[in-house]
């Protein structure tokens, strides 16, 4: 299976995107283009689930909130994303609405799959950081690493890459620490 791209000569607005019929496949609006991806693999789901538990416990201790896909992140009139995991600090809880998340989260996590690698590593990374996301994690279950981009490091230079048995932590969620090898299935 591969990612389905809509007709690139017809760009959608956020309002048009929100009028589409519901689907069981992950669906995002990226630069005005409707992107439908295959459902996540079991490996992707396992990594996502393990990360979610760690984030949930850390968020509860911080007074913030954590959400997992599918959760709508309203970026602008041409972009609506469904990140794998996102964290909202106590000071940004007002961004949580009945529609989804309507403001930049403190931390966003995308887990790579063979179908979304370029989108997550380039297009979404740049859009997230331009939107004001403080910290963006690209989790690579194939290479078994996490690459972190921050507002201060910019779009082109990661602030950190966690590999091997590194201890993972986040400046935006200080209650989150774990050993990297705990999230990747053998």
UniProtKB/TrEMBL annotation:
Per the record, the coiled-coil ranges are: none
A GO MF term: endonuclease activity
- Pfam families (UniProt xref): Uma2
Q: Keywords on this record?
A: Endonuclease, Hydrolase, Nuclease
Which superkingdom is the protein from? Bacteria
The record places domain Putative restriction endonuclease at 14-173
Q: What is this protein called?
A: Endonuclease, Uma2 family (Restriction endonuclease fold)
């Amino acid at each position: 299976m591969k990612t389905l791209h809509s007709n690139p000569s017809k760009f959608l607005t956020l309002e048009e995107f929100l009028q589409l019929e519901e689907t069981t496949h992950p669906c995002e609006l990226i630069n005005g283009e409707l992107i439908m991806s295959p459902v996540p693999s079991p490996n992707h789901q396992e990594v996502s689930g393990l990360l979610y538990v760690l984030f949930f416990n850390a968020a509860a201790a911080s007074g913030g909130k954590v959400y997992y896909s599918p959760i709508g992140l309203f970026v602008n009139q041409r972009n609506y994303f469904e990140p794998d995991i996102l964290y909202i600090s106590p000071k940004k809880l007002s961004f949580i609405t009945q529609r989804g998340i309507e403001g930049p989260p403190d931390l966003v996590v995308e887990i790579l799959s063979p179908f979304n690698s370029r989108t997550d590593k380039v297009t979404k990374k740049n859009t997230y950081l331009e939107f004001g996301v403080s910290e963006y994690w690209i989790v690579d279950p194939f290479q078994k690493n996490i690459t972190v981009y921050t507002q201060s490091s910019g779009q082109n230079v990661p602030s950190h890459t966690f590999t091997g048995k590194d201890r993972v932590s986040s400046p935006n969620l200080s209650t989150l620490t774990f050993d990297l090898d705990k999230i990747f299935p053998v």
